[in-house]
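[Meeting: bench + compute handoff]

Bench side (C.D.) handed over the final construct sequence. Compute side (W.E.) agreed to return the predicted structure before the next meeting so the bench team could plan truncations. Sequence as handed over:
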Amino acid sequence: MKHRLKLFYIIPLLILVVFLLASCSKEDNDLKGYVGENKIVLLANTTIYMQDNSTDELLVNVYLVNSVTETVTLDFALENNIVDQQALTVLEQSTITFKPGEKKGQLKIKSKSRGVLDKEHTININLVKNTSSLPLDKTFTINLIPIRRAEALTDHQIELLDGYKRRGLDLYPLMGDIPVVANVKFPGGGNLETMFNAKDIMLNGYTSITLSDLSTADRPVLRMVSNPMGIESYLYELFRSETVDDKDFWTQTPSVQQIMELINLSPTSKETFEVELDEIAIDLKTRKITYLSTLKDINNDEYTAVPFTYKYTAWDRLKKLIDEQSPLAVENYEMGGSVYPGHYINNGDITTDGFTKDGMGYWREPTAILSDNTLKFQFTISHTNADDYVLFNIEYKLK
């Protein structure tokens, strides 16, 4: 397995370790500019944007400019959170308590609705109860973005589906928004501090599925239009951890810094990240499923993996400059300043164990099984700073 992007990190490693040991705390960095009067400050942990997809989560850091000598309890609430009589998000823990000497807490907001919005919507977090006299600096605004949905089936798609059904394969139960449960096993041990710990995550959501344009009368092909495999939000989180949320290495690389400035990319810039998956082919006779394809990494080397495709607004801006032959864009891109998600996640071959863990790692042979009631997948992905594969087990319940 090739992880050539790691080369950009190895050279400055020792220098950065020394620098980080001498640096101030994250809290002090986040609160830079807040001096004098003690107050309550709400700041984004990463981004202020999430999708109306019932799965996205967003963290908000709650700071006191100065620690206190008495216990302070704060209650927060969401405003402008109802559309068409549906709650769009939920505040999972609305109360923050600061004990003497403490100055940081955290709120978690989770998307609750799915597909309710047809345009961007703002939700505010406000302070509704405060046992102290400390003022709130300002309310915090979340931007909720509509999701893509599979369009209504065309006459041609219905004709194909009817043909498959006559031949014994009814795919209508897989059309539309299909419930999905994804188990994500993250091995830990990666090259970044945020990747040291192993994780075992269960994700529940929906995938919008339709019949692909690649389908023929003898070969049905599925296309996952939104939240493929139920892991779109997880892939974005992993991608961000490799890039804009990596304050120690990636964002300190000169070519990356040039690109970020050139395209106005930051951890809090307004970006859209969407994933699709096409080419899920089903054999009409055996129901055998094939879904791997040949992809190319940042060095144009070929590898085989699940062919996720990404729409990422920061990459759209950079790609436009590269196509226009902007010298600054081309030079720094060639020096490793890419922001294309596929260069950092799902960027290595999964047909064999490239991490050579002697059977003790997370690699598993990719599989897919379609029964009368379920559609199941098992596959892995690699990523730039990985020490092993991330393992996914996916299950769709058919309608």
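W.E. noted at the follow-up: The two ends are 39 Å apart (CA to CA). C.D. will use this when planning the next construct.
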